[in-house]
Prior knowledge:
Blueprint: H1 13-23, H2 34-45, E1 54-55, E2 61-65, E3 74-80, E4 86-93, H3 104-112, E5 116-117, E6 122-123, H4 128-134, E7 142-152, E8 158-175, H5 176-183, H6 191-194, H7 197-219, E9 229-235, E10 238-245, H8 249-272, E11 276-280, H9 287-296, H10 307-320, H11 325-336, E12 340-344, H12 371-384, H13 393-426, E13 433-442, E14 445-451, E15 454-459, E16 475-484, E17 489-493
Parallel strand pairs: 1-8, 2-8, 15-17
Antiparallel strand pairs: 3-4, 4-7, 5-6, 7-8, 9-10, 11-12, 13-14, 13-16, 14-15, 16-17
Amino acid sequence: MATRNGHASHFNLVAAAHEAMIEHGFQPEFPAGTEAQLERIRAEAGQGTDQPFQDLRQLLWSSIDNDTSKDLDQIEWAEQLADGRIRVLVGVADVDARVTRGTAIDSHARSETTSVYTGVRVFPMLPTDLSEGITSLNENEDRAAVVIEFTVDAAGAVENGKAYRAWVRNRAQLAYNSVGKWLAGEGEAPAKVAANQDLAAQIKLQDAAAQRLLGCRFQHGALDLETIETRPVMLAEEAVEITRLEKNRATNLIEEFMVSANGVIARIFDDAGVASIRRVVRVPKRWDRIVELAEQLGTKLPAAPDSKALNDFLLQQKQKDPDHFPDLSLAVVKLMGPGEYVLVRANDASPGHFGLAVQDYTHSTAPNRRFPDMVTQRLLKAWFVRAQAPYSVGDLDAIAQHCTLMEDAARKVEREMQKRIAAVVLRPRIGEKFRAIVTGVNHYGTFVRTLDPHVEGMLVNAGKPGARRLDVGDRLTVTLTSTDPERGFVDFTI
């Protein structure tokens, strides 16, 4: 809504998020039959599930997630072995134990495929009674889980991967920011960690394992990217500021365990000859532009896509010019293109994940918020008891394609809401100049992201006669000329 002079009065971001969900094919409201199914699940929750194989509730499990996260999918525990290796256990919420295939809640999850995080409201794939309650690995609650186990040697190689069902109990719910600062020596230990020496030692050991894993993946060409995520600061349901979310030692810890656990599951399926859904990022189609960007910065990359060479260049640039490294990372991410879900049949090779430098990668560690992870969980649990797979090859192919489409739709919703939030927050700053980087050039126009705050918008005079030709990765100074929260427009000029 706007006044006659064009200045925004009040714009309802939550209502806009709901409308955006519908416009992009989502169904924000849960279907008929959901409440009745929830009642049955609540009644069954007090009775437990069919007995898992192991009782691991005595272990000092913990979770690390965002400060505001309520849908906890993953917990971790580690053990130092006598031969120098570190044994790692990743517990994943057993959502399938509560959500039966073909029910109203499951059908809705299959349609939506993902929870959508709009900055002002979360639209969950599963009802919050489940994703934030009964199936969430909440602190001091007994839960059924699928445990993924592996060992990490001194060089960071993952060995002895296995998976099984177990009872678990999250002993400490921790947050990225506070744990990350503590691990890096930049802050005090979080209160729960400071009060428990065993927990402090446990997190330090997990960090040591993660650092080994990270070093090993870098040796194989994993990309050390530093893309920037933002979230709005809300005051009385109004967005008043945009803050930056940064990677740290704690986010690296969880990411490394997640990548390793997903690799273990993929290899289990390969060894068993089980068809599954994989997460892949193919070889970049715009490698030529990545080569061009590297040349501008004094590095010659091979003519053919090479993740190891690219990462060596990225590491060099991170050390040489840390201030602009997020800009370079963003450009590389854009040029690599989005990931996708694909069917991998029994005994077929996976296309692999270029950015992670791993060949075997599925999604299994977030079943509260991603449907492919629920599918993977069901396939794995069927394999545990040597039962027939719950999905045919045709089912898996259709699910993979639909999940890719809906993930793309979710990105569009989240991007639109980021722009609407930015339009609200930046309205008072029209006329100011900002440093920016070009993030996209297509037939619609030229798009940029400012560096402080990190906001995306359109460059409205990029195509004027005499203007220099811009491409992804170019840096420039822009002036904010207008914002339109309703349409999500943030316009700049050179």
